[in-house]
Amino acid sequence: NSTESSLVIIQRKYQVLPDFKHTEYLRSRGLSEEILSSHLCQNRIKNEYIYYPKLTSKKPGIKYINTVFPIYGSDGDKTFLCGFVRKNEGLKLTEEYSKQSIGVWASDYKRNEKVTHLVLCENPIDALSYCQLNINYKKDNPLLAASNGELTKTQMELYQEMVLRLRPDTIVLANDNNSRGQLFNAKILSS
User: 76-83, long-range: CB within 8 Å, 24+ apart, which pairs?
Assistant: First the structure.
């Protein structure tokens, strides 16, 4: 099955990425070191080192450090890695073989406590920004989720599954105040 082999390739590539230690890009986007080192981001963001041009013995390449957000899907019983998105200044690149349309990025949350806020966004940076500005994430227990762009039927079903399973106190649609953000909100509200 080509989907299964694609998922295996994605999982192998993601497993070897280094842990999230280089926060410069996300800090340049206004996120604090405090939220980036919080439980919300634990095992939910990684780094990737790219050398361009490729490293050779004659000429060293320039090292770029990308921020990587994993995308998780669900088969009803368990979640699985189905892709990842790289971000950096001027870069948004979905990994080849990713099945972005069947999954979402999700923060971590305190599993032994009730979810207080389910924040749904177009992208992970917006979700973290909203949380940083509007939620006491040390006291409350938010779960942040992002579709990484277009909202598909499968992603909407994942959101519905989160709501039914977690029964959050509050659901927040924290999208851009433009036509695309309004469309995103309308799609969620109509589902």
Answer: 76/161, 80/7, 81/7, 81/10, 81/11, 81/14, 82/7, 82/10, 83/10
